Amino acid sequence: MQLGKNGVLSILGENIYPGESKEVNFDVANLHTSGAVNVPVIIERAKKPGPTVLFTAGIHGDEVNGTEIVRQLIAKGINKPKIGTIICMPVINIFGFINLKREFPDGRDLNRVFPGSKSGSLASRVAYKLVKDIIPHADLIIDFHTGGSGRFNAPQLRYSKHKTNFDELARVFGAPFVLYSSNLSKSFRSTCNKLGKPLLLFEGGKSFHIDEVVTNSGVNGSKRILKHLGMLRTIFKSTKPKNACIFITDSKWQRAKFSGMFKASIAVGSFVEKDAIIGNITDPYGKLNYFVRASNTGYIINVNESPIVYQGDALFHISTMLK
């Protein structure tokens, strides 16, 4: 964590002193109408020294459930720490958020251009600024995402299987599932890993949708992490998760064998036995009624909620191996 000799946090051209609250602007480019784009960064500092935790969301502009989780952390005052510093960025891809699109106006996925470039595309410049001006201050990053294209994710944490030192933090967070997954090239997670910055990636829900169960999982998990670090104020309660985390070391997608109208008959997060009926595909004319059976025994960690599917579309994400 980069602090001055007197404990001043210098970030984005602003100085924030211990015990101070400040909203600073993560400014990259104006809209095409020349209007200013304000990307607020909310910073809360306790008088007592301690870790700096960074909560981020909205790397993809259509993943509003993640933004809602960080919004609640701010609105409820959970982001005001007992010790240390909490930095909140509810919407990183403000351009996509405005247009309810996953990508930037230049068509690029922000999560595929890290660590970015000072003179590159718009998305690349945002990535560069985030890595240069924000990430160096963080001791721990929790990044909130959702499923895409109508696919609903069960609340879960994701990190590389090589980062088993994250297992303790994952148990503290208490999401129902932990999915070991490789770091994608040029992703935010991969870049933070290379910089030695621990990052827990939370997935839950789907795009264009706010789900109360998923939101509660993200907010409660964040409170548990803050309590674990000694940062959660005593006015907030942090209850233990009802069930232990299920660690998934391998999984696979089950895909549609036919095109048609699809309906899942199993809830996300459920445990299923091989060959159990978990959905069906029909056609508009009443001629086809194909029952989708589980390809293997495991937990359903993602369900496609689109009413129309094509042959080869992903329907269910099912665990194949547990830790």
UniProtKB/TrEMBL annotation:
It comes from Neotamlana nanhaiensis. InterPro entries: AstE_AspA_cat, N-alpha-Ac-DABA-like, N-alpha-Ac-DABA_deacetylase. It comes from the Bacteria. The keyword Chloroplast does not apply. Pfam families: AstE_AspA_cat. This is Succinylglutamate desuccinylase. Residues 49-229 form the Succinylglutamate desuccinylase/Aspartoacylase catalytic domain. Keywords: Hydrolase, Metal-binding, Zinc. The keyword Nucleus does not apply. GO terms for molecular function: hydrolase activity, acting on carbon-nitrogen (but not peptide) bonds, in linear amides; hydrolase activity, acting on ester bonds; metal ion binding. Its cofactor is Zn(2+).
